[in-house]
Structures are given as structure tokens and as C-alpha cells.
């Protein structure tokens, strides 16, 4: 057991877009601290930051020191960020204020649940604390539906959002074959295509659909467009035309973050009056503009001269995909354990670190078969904050197939994460 | 037992927008026929129409006579219309072709699952059959997420869609309080506000929210706009301003079918390049245009002079709300039984009719308490086709409260239908 432990207050915060399981991680940290540092007498109070570092700097806390386990269990199963979240991305001056607030409130353990911006906040605050000789330990707990954190096999929040996308596309594909037409579904993911790729799990008979025979397949979505592959409108229209002219219908999954060959987001270019968030990003979610625009392109292109336009519809899955209350069971467990693991790192005397989820190979002693028949187990590891901070992971080459599909490797990667999917019957 | 039974083929079709439980009704009819007319020797074949009357007129059928019960059970739990659906709304000439096809294929029992247009098709075809002396019995089985059929307490498909809307609004409200802003959710319902009204079920603490104190409530959505109440943009903006200025956030449910005081749909007026369906209706679903437009109005109105616009987001729930695979258990049971009841009506010797779901009062011998503590039981009745055909039911006065809310009566009406909703914890 570590002997260098400091005694003081613990703060825990949640940051960025909420997910279906970010409260699992919050409760995991509370439990990890409670059964570790707190039991060992190193904790005065466990304080939840209201709306992340924004609340911290204002001294707005919720006292979680003695919160009953029953409340914690209900909270863990509640989607979205129970403490409130924030989109603030602290610069150096902001981080100074964070550190001042921590000093003022005798904070010695700082836990922050979020994406790569949150791990960057942890990193900066920790470096400032070290430089000023203040002993405060900083830990980052991973969270993002985009699944774009480095060092992680996948990130809590992604499996549940992927489950939603798979379920939505399964049901919507059946809708599409029932009333045939061209259907475009726009899915979250600013830079990384993992969540859009999960639409391929909706294919029940032919998940590993060959893009060269998409028009022959009985399964959908037939076309999948990721931000990692430069989006060419003419090629897109040719793809849709090819499937539609053969099948009389076409089911399409498009990432909100699709970009042209110069890296300019198609959506951002076109959304009139679009808002930018505090990170300087143009608003992609919370608008149907990209889907509607692509639908207009398709109608224009595929309407025969003097004829009737095809039935084209676009839906944007929107915010419900990140908070849908039917989370993946794997995700629930992993989000909770990630939080607990952060508490354990602190108890072990680590001074900082980011929790990462790793997937050992089938040769591992931890290997076990999953319900889907795909081998799956996960482990938790400490990685350096700087290895995760402010970096973005993309879909690896081997997860993509052609310019409009995903590979078998991706399906084997993703399928165990989402939990059991319903089995449907087609006549 | 009726003695006037005719012997021949049975056809079953599905029509209109698919739902999560329309296959339950299909299987219910197959079972009702199988255990009734078929067992009694009055059925040669049970034929499913491919894409409703469109397939029927082309002689496109799926033979369901001997479909295994296991397949039927899986099919029943599969969302969307397993036989394929159609938007065709037959006129007299089309109905002649339907009758011709029925004669040609020796159809003696005609079952059609759908909304008020489908019951009208049943009515016309039946009248033509009578006029021409052809003995064919026509039965309509109710289906519509809009819940707008006359004579019915509610309609199969609505409870599951209402469940989706309630779950989505519960989760999205938590998202909204986590990252505060103004959030507009656009919900299906062209003429009837039942589905949008179901958003009120998302309120966990204060379901019967008083519109006069919406800005004080801890619960959302705080504002609900139905097609039954003339929509006034200025009043809407004043409502939003009032809630937002007090709480710093606002959660809003809007029906896609909101209309101005002259009965003109706000969405239809504004959607550029909007498509009309074969009923002459302007396309409202499958586009984010209405939500985006309202969001633009709000941004414009609520941006302080020279200041930063508020965070405004709009999501349109889209097609997944009608086919989401987590259906309401009540809906599953009732959709199945509605189908079976139609088979029973035929076996009893009725010549035509529409199945209606009734809810007896608490004084009924059938009364039982529901899981939600709200008394609930349903019964099935035969009503005349003409009582349902081509008519629309709207939210009754007593279900509405002010111009932007629903009443306690509506909540008591709707809550038992959707099944158990998850319990969430708020700190």
C-alpha cells in the first residue's frame, strides 16, 4: 500500500456531452474513493462539482460524502450528467482559477470524467499544482460517445450510443422496406466515424456487406459515410442511384462530421446561422440541416426528367442517441469500473493518470466468450494524461471497407460492446 | 355459432405508416382465422397482401396458411409492416380493381390493418361487393401512432410510440439540465396531438405541471404545443422567453402538425421543396425543417442586443418513434388481440366491421389496477366501418390545459398505456 497519501477533500466533475452511463462513472469514483481513500481516513469530504470546472471555480458543490448507496445505484442508472456538465474548455488562466479554487477548498484529489479536453484540463491543472508545490492528485475518467480517445480500445458512453444507433437502424430499415424510398439517417460523430459505423450492426443477415454488391443485398443500411473518408457529393449520388435503381429503395447512414477532401465539414459549410460552441466548433448536432440538404441533392439528382421525384426522407438522430435510457450492459459495467479504477489509482498512491479500457487478445487468461459468440473481455489500465489529452483517435484503416462501408474487423470489434440486439423475423 | 359462413380465401393487408406492433395485429388476424374459420373448414388459403392493396391488385401475395407458430411469434415482435405497407388511398376506380382481384382469387374474407383511410377502403370495397352480389366480408383492424381513430379509446401503435416519446423526453430533459439551453423536440402527429402530449409523461415529479408556473417547475418539458391549439409564433416566443429568463433553460415539445389560426400547418408553409404524398398531404416527417425554423426564431428573438445568442437546439424524432423496437407491453397485447378479435367477428358471421378498443370505467367487472396504480383494462368491440372511415379524432378539450400544456385527465389516460417507465435519480 502506498505510504505517500495526502489527506483532504475529493472533487469529482463531469464534462462535455453527457452519455447514458456517465453517472455510472461518477458513482464508480464515489465508490472507489469510499472503499479506498475514505475508508483509510484520507478524505474529509467528497464533493461533486456543479457543471464541472465552471461550478468548481464558483465554489458550487454537491456533498456526496455520505450519499446513500441506494441513491448512488439509482443515480448510476440515470442517463446524462447528474452533477451537470459544461462545455468550458479551460485555458491557462482558467486553470489557474481552478487551482485557486482547489486550494481554497483544500482539494487534494481531483477526478474529472470526460473526453480529451477534460483529460487536458487534468493535465494542465496537475502541472500547475506541481509547479506551485501544491499536492493535488489529478485523474481523468474516460467518457465520449464519439469513441475518439487515444489509448482506449473504446470509451464508456460509446457502447450505449452504438446500441441506440444499431437498434434505430434495425427498426428504420424495416420501415424503409415496408414503405420503400430513400432514407438518410444522420448520426453523431464530429471527427470519428465509430458511431456511424455502428449502423452496420443493424444488418442481420449480411453484416459484412460487400460494398460492391450493396445493391444486391437484402440488408441495410447499404451505404455508410464516415468522416474519415473524404465525402464527394457526386460519388454519393452515384452510390444512391446505383442502389435505388436496382432495389427501388436505399438506406443510408451518414456521419454529421463528413468532410470534403480539404477537411471542411459538409454540414458546417451549409448550416445557415450555425452556432459555434466554446471550443470554436461549428454546431453540427441539434439541427436537421445536413440531412435535409443531402435529401434535396438526392431528390434533384434522381428525379427523372418530367417525372415524379423519388420518396426521400432524412432523419437526424440527435441528442437522444447519447442519452437513450436503454444502455448497453457492458457499457454500464465498464463505466462504473472505470470510475472505481480511478479511485483505486489514487489509493495506490499514483499522483495522476488517465484510466484506459484495454481489450486483451484471446490468448489472455482473462478471455471469455461473449453472448454474441465473439470473444470479449476488458481490462483497465493507467496511462499518462499527456497520452490522451487533446488528442483524437479515428477509425483505423482496417475498420473501413471501400469508401462507403465498414469491415468485418469493425463488426467483431463493436458487436460485443452493444449487448444483445433483438431478433427480428422477415417474411 | 353463425351458420351463414362462406368458404374461400382470406386476405390480410397492412397499410399506412408502420408501427412497432402492426405485426402483432397481422399475427393476431392469422391466429384468429386459424383457430376460427380455418379450423371450421371455411378457409382455403390465408394470403398476405404484399404492400397492401397495391400488391393485392397485382396478385402479389405471401402464403401464411401454414406459417409455423414460432415464425409468427418472432414476426409479431418485429417492428414495421412485415408484409410491406402502402400509402395508396384507393378511390372508387381503384376499389373496383381491388374487388376484381378479390373475385379472381376467390377471396371471401378481407382484413385490412391501418388507419382511417384503410377503414374507408374496407367500407368502399364492402359496399361494392354487396352491390355486385359478391359475398366477401370486410374487416378493419385499427392501427395508427397518431391515435386519431374515432370510436377507439386509443389505437394500437400509439402506446408504443408514446412510450418512445416519453423515454426520449425523459432522457433529453436530463441532457438539457446537464448542459442548459433551449431545446425543441418535434414529434409526429399531423392533425392529432396525442403523441406530442405524451411528452408530459417525461415529467417525473410534477407531471400535472401548471402552465402558469412552468417557469418555476423543476420538470420538463415545460412547454407543449399541439395541432389542436392554434400556434401563434409571438406567443410561443414569449412563452420560451418567460421560462428561459427564469431558469436559464427551456425544454419544449412541438407537434409536427402545429397550425396557425387559419388551420394552415406551420411546417407545410415553410418546408421548401416539400413533397406531397398520395393523399395530397405535404410531407411533415423525414425533415428537420420545422424544428430548425423554430430554433432560428428563438435565436433571433432571444439574442440580447450586441450579445451572444442563447444555446438553441432542435431535434426531430423522426421515423424511429413509430418503429422503436422496445414496444409497450400493453400495446403488444392489445394489437394482437385486436387482430384476433377481427378473426372472431368473421367466425361469428359478421359481414363487416371495424375493431375498436374501449376502456370500461372503474365500475366495470373487468376493472383491475395497473402497475402504475392507475386503473386500466381494455375491451374489444365491433363498430360500423362508416363510424371510423375517413374520420379524424382530435385531443378532447379536457385533455388540454391552457395553450401549451396537457391536463391531469390526459396523464391518467395515457400513463397506463405506455408500460413501466424507468425511474431516475436527480441530485
Summarize the helices and strands and which ones pair or pack.
The structure is a homodimer of 427-residue chains.
Chain A: E1 8-14, H1 22-38, E2 43-49, H2 52-58, E3 61-63, H3 69-76, H4 92-104, E4 107-114, H5 116-131, E5 137-142, H6 158-178, E6 182-187, H7 194-197, E7 223-225, H8 233-247, E8 250-255, H9 266-270, H10 289-302, E9 312-316, H11 320-323, H12 329-347, E10 352-358, E11 379-383, H13 385-388, E12 400-401, E13 405-406, H14 408-418
Parallel strand pairs in A: 1-2, 1-4, 4-5, 5-10, 6-8, 6-9, 7-8
Antiparallel strand pairs in A: 2-3, 10-11, 12-13
Describe this structure in words.
Two copies of one chain form a homodimer. By secondary structure, chain A is an alpha/beta fold. Chain A has 14 helices and 13 strands. The first copy, chain A, has two domains: 8-156 and 327-388, Rossmann fold (3-Layer(aba) Sandwich); 159-324 and 397-418, Phosphofructokinase domain (Rossmann fold, 3-Layer(aba) Sandwich), CATH 3.40.50. In chain A, the strands form three sheets. A seven-stranded mixed sheet of chain A has the order 3-2-1-4-5-10-11, sandwiched between helices. Chain A has a four-stranded parallel sheet with strand order 7-8-6-9, sandwiched between helices. In chain A, strand 4 (107-114), helix 5 and strand 5 form a beta-alpha-beta unit. In chain A, helix 1 packs parallel to helix 12 and helix 2 packs across helix 4. The termini of chain A are far apart. Mean pLDDT of chain A is 91; it is low at 366-371. At the A-B interface, helix 3, helix 6, helix 10, strand 9 and helix 11 of A face helix 3, helix 6, helix 10, strand 9 and helix 11 of B.
Amino acid at each position: 500500500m502506498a505510504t505517500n497519501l495526502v489527506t483532504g477533500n475529493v472533487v469529482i466533475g463531469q464534462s462535455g456531452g453527457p452519455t447514458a452511463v456517465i453517472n455510472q462513472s461518477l458513482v464508480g469514483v464515489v465508490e472507489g474513493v469510499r472503499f479506498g481513500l475514505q475508508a483509510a481516513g484520507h478524505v474529509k469530504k467528497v464533493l461533486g462539482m456543479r457543471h464541472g470546472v465552471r461550478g468548481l471555480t464558483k465554489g458550487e458543490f454537491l456533498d456526496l460524502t455520505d450519499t446513500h448507496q441506494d441513491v448512488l445505484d439509482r443515480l448510476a442508472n440515470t442517463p446524462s450528467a447528474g452533477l451537470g456538465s459544461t462545455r468550458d474548455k479551460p485555458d491557462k488562466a482558467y486553470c489557474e482559477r481552478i487551482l485557486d479554487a482547489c486550494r481554497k477548498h483544500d482539494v487534494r484529489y481531483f477526478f474529472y470524467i470526460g473526453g480529451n479536453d477534460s483529460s487536458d484540463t487534468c493535465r494542465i491543472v496537475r502541472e500547475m499544482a506541481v509547479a506551485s508545490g501544491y499536492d493535488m492528485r489529478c485523474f481523468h475518467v474516460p467518457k465520449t460517445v464519439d469513441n475518439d480517445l487515444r489509448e482506449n480500445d473504446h470509451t464508456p458512453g460509446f457502447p450505449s450510443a452504438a446500441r441506440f444507433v444499431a437498434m434505430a437502424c434495425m427498426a428504420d430499415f424495416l420501415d424503409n422496406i415496408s414503405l420503400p424510398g430513400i432514407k438518410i439517417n444522420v448520426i453523431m460523430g464530429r471527427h470519428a466515424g465509430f458511431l456511424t459505423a455502428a449502423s452496420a450492426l443493424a444488418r442481420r443477415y449480411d453484416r459484412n456487406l460487400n460494398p460492391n454488391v450493396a445493391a444486391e443485398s437484402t440488408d441495410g443500411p447499404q451505404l455508410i459515410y464516415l468522416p474519415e473518408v473524404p465525402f464527394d457529393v457526386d460519388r454519393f449520388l452515384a452510390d444512391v442511384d446505383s442502389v435505388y435503381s436496382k432495389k427501388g429503395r436505399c438506406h443510408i447512414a451518414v456521419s454529421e462530421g463528413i468532410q470534403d477532401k480539404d477537411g471542411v465539414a459538409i454540414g458546417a459549410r451549409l448550416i445557415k446561422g450555425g452556432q459555434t460552441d466554446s471550443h470554436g466548433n461549428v454546431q453540427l448536432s441539434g439541427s436537421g440541416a445536413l440531412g435535409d440538404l443531402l435529401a434535396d441533392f438526392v431528390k434533384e439528382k434522381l428525379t427523372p426528367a418530367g417525372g415524379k421525384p423519388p420518396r426521400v426522407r432524412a432523419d437526424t438522430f440527435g441528442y437522444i442517441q447519447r442519452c437513450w435510457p436503454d444502455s448497453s450492459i457492458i457499457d454500464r459495467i465498464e463505466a462504473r469500473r472505470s470510475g472505481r479504477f480511478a479511485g483505486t489509482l489514487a489509493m495506490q498512491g499514483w499522483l495522476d493518470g488517465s484510466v484506459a479500457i484495454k481489450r486483451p487478445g484471446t490468448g489472455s487468461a482473462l478471455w471469455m466468450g461473449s453472448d454474441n459468440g465473439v470473444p470479449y473481455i476488458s481490462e483497465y489500465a493507467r496511462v499518462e494524461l499527456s497520452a490522451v489529452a487533446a488528442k483524437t483517435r479515428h477509425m483505423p484503416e482496417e475498420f473501413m471497407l471501400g469508401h462507403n462501408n465498414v469491415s468485418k474487423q469493425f463488426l467483431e470489434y463493436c458487436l460485443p460492446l452493444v449487448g444483445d440486439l433483438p431478433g427480428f423475423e422477415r417474411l
